[in-house]
Amino acid sequence: MSNDWLPHALAAKGFMPPDEGMLLHRRALERLPHGPALEVGTYCGKSAIYLGAAAREVGGEQAVVFTVDHHRGSEENQAGWEHHDPGVVDPQVGMMETLPFARRALHDAGLEDQVVLVVGRSTTASTHWRTPLSLLFIDGGHAEEHAQNDYSGWAHHLVRDGLLVIHDVFSDPADGGQAPYHVHLRALDSGAFEEVEALGSMRVLRRVSGAAGDPVG
Fold this sequence. Notes:
Elements: H1 6-11, H2 18-31, E1 37-40, H3 46-58, E2 65-69, E3 89-90, E4 95-96, H4 99-108, E5 115-119, H5 122-128, E6 133-138, H6 144-154, E7 158-166, H7 179-190, E8 193-199, E9 202-207
Parallel strand pairs: 1-2, 1-6, 2-5, 6-7
Antiparallel strand pairs: 3-4, 7-9, 8-9
Helix pairs in contact: 2-3, 5-6, 6-7
GO molecular function: methyltransferase activity
Keywords: Methyltransferase, Transferase
InterPro entries: SAM-dependent_MTases_sf (IPR029063)
């Protein structure tokens, strides 16, 4: 299949190294034949391109990626923080607005038919979600409350053998925030998941017990 999408993934605003993006793409190729994938934390669409390109390659109606974000930025993206980008602030409202960047990135990569943008808070969307997932990528807000809510709200929708992918997992506080690491430990401690791959700050866990809708701890 064509990799014409790759330059768009590399050019899109975001914080994912290319090797981790390619891991995400490879794992999406594995799981999308079995049902849709969902990403928590769209930002400007970089990781959604890696996922959407896999959906395009797999083909079929069920090879769809949903990506959820309120597009006002996480805590670490706000003014005064390390990862703030003033270029994504809407001057009329004085707040971050990443949705146009995500839409443009997906358009330019030719992936608008494969990626569905869900605009809203993760907790609101997860409360009303009913569709089993083959892959869940958690890369939303890194505050403890938000990261834990993303796991609580979405992980139980994974089918057995489905993959839970968590980004920015750092066991050493000197390397980064601890909330994604705590989610990683929570998933392993639940007994519902086992780790199958690690690369950089990315962790891939497979659901080994229960079915979609069952609690995951």
